[in-house]
Amino acid sequence: MTTLAAPAGNEIQNTLAATYTRGTDTTVTLTDGTAFPSSVHVIRIQDGTKWCLKLYESKATHVLTLVDTEAGAASDALAKNVTVGDEAHAFAIGSTVELVCAADEIAQLFAGVAANVQTPIAQNVDVAGYDFSDMGVLNYDDATELTISVAETARLACDVAWDDRTGGSCACTADADDPDTGAGDSAKMALTDDWASPRLLASEGLVAIDITGSSVIRVWMKCSVACDAGDFQLVIDDTADCASPIQHCDIPALAAATWTEVDIHYNPILTGMDAVISFGLFEVADKEDASFLIHELRTAVGSVTVTQSYHKIDTESGSEAETYLDTISGGTAGDVIYLRAENTARSVILAHDTGNILCTDQSAFGLFDTTRIAKLIYDGTNWHLANNNNQTKVMAKAFLATNQAGVGAGAWTEIELDATEFDPLGMFNSGTHRIAVPLTGYYLIVGLVAFTGVNSPGRFLISIKNNTTGIFLGSPSVHSSSSNPLSIPVLLITRATAGDTFSLFTNQQGTGADLIAAGSVAGSECSMIIYLVSEG
């Protein structure tokens, strides 16, 4: 009889401590731990190229006993790798002993898994603890939470005067005032009231850089007066002196005379973002006699490493209101993961094609609350968002159903839109005549205003107003004295924050005219369309 020392836990592989000869009545005892119940199993004993299979015939107190009944009964040595005449091979001390088939253990494991699989998902089955690694699926763990780690890349020190191109009545200097980061001076722009806004205040050049690998610029800023979001914009350009900007990016709100580290969002897939050579500061709202300082401009990239099929994702440091996720590490080709925000008050944005995440429609996908879940599939290189196509489109069209009479001259007048053609999310409020956007992101807005014929020369303007910021966006105009109906369109893309409301305005200088209702003149109407182009 040979007794092997008990392995740890449920280990089922050991080596012979004494020889075993096939064809001879022999008892081999193997202790394999306490978790397996008693039943019949098959082990494989191997010595070099020689091997045989044996049955466990009994198990008492977790000790498995093998009895070869070659003499006078059917052999339980099921197979061998020996030649004829070599059946009585002696397996030497140290020969490998391993479990080949443990039917009851397999049945026990799969019965437990099957019981959960057969239970409806709606019952929130807890399958934590099952190891699915051999099936190519990351483990489920409801308790696993990941916090986005953000890496920064320095782009522009902003420690010298931004004087490559200076707007009217703006003095640009280097200033010793800085947010105590240890990186030296800041760039200061001192404004006067001699020039009206909007205007480019200053620009600074640099050696061409590629910023397509991020969608966030992180920078220290300070203004001597309080600023609302969008009062100033950061200009990005692939031409010198911001002569032909690629995009204008709204700067977040700033408290008066307070250094604030802000994240400014930009669209990295626009042409020229791989060869940026100038940044600029653009004044939208008139901030006469104010001073504006900039320090340490960087790009920021967010990343996490997944270890399970399901993760809750939190923003940087678990406290930031919003963080962009660019790169997901971990996983193997074919893996599927599910991500949702850890906290409704903190938003996680999956950035498109800045790292290894590819979103449908080339637009970012926002986890703005804990009810939204992103499903992603890994191809070995990139994670592909699989569920963005099924999201309800964020769009609305409101129009004027009844003529708006008595529109006077010389002042901005809100058009009283009162009906919708489509509005799947209920964004339009007929009482206020405004459309509210539900998500933070970039929106395409199209407005059209139609006037009755005019009897005296006049200048007709229209504009889209963000009622939250108070800013009028775009003001195309036409000078006309025709007695025929007149239509003027406006089209723009702007970034808006969730909850912002937009309305359509007209300004008639020199005369007054009624507004035409939709359909009252073929091809003419007063209407506004808002469509979400990209979240974030």
Q: Which SSEs are present, and which pair or pack?
A:
Elements: E1 2-4, E2 13-15, E3 20-21, E4 27-31, E5 42-47, E6 50-55, E7 58-60, E8 63-67, E9 90-91, E10 96-101, H1 103-117, E11 145-147, E12 149-156, E13 165-166, E14 170-175, E15 186-191, E16 199-209, E17 216-223, E18 232-237, E19 247-250, E20 260-265, E21 276-283, E22 291-305, E23 310-314, E24 322-325, E25 327-329, E26 336-341, E27 347-350, E28 357-358, E29 365-367, E30 373-378, E31 383-385, E32 395-399, E33 412-414, E34 419-422, E35 428-429, E36 434-436, E37 441-451, E38 458-466, E39 471-473, E40 477-480, E41 486-496, E42 501-509, E43 527-535
Task: Provide an overview of this structure.
This protein is mostly beta strands and 536 residues long. It has four domains: 2-105; 152-300, Jelly Rolls (Sandwich), CATH 2.60.120.260; 307-390, Jelly Rolls (Sandwich), CATH 2.60.120; 395-535, Jelly Rolls, CATH 2.60.120.40. It has one helix and 43 strands. Strands 12, 14, 15, 17, 20, 22 and 25 form a seven-stranded mixed sheet that branches. Strand 7 (58-60) and strand 8 form a beta hairpin. The longest helix is centred in the N-terminal third of the chain and has 15 residues, at 103-117. Mean pLDDT is 76; it is low at 1-13, 32-38, 57-84 and 118-141.
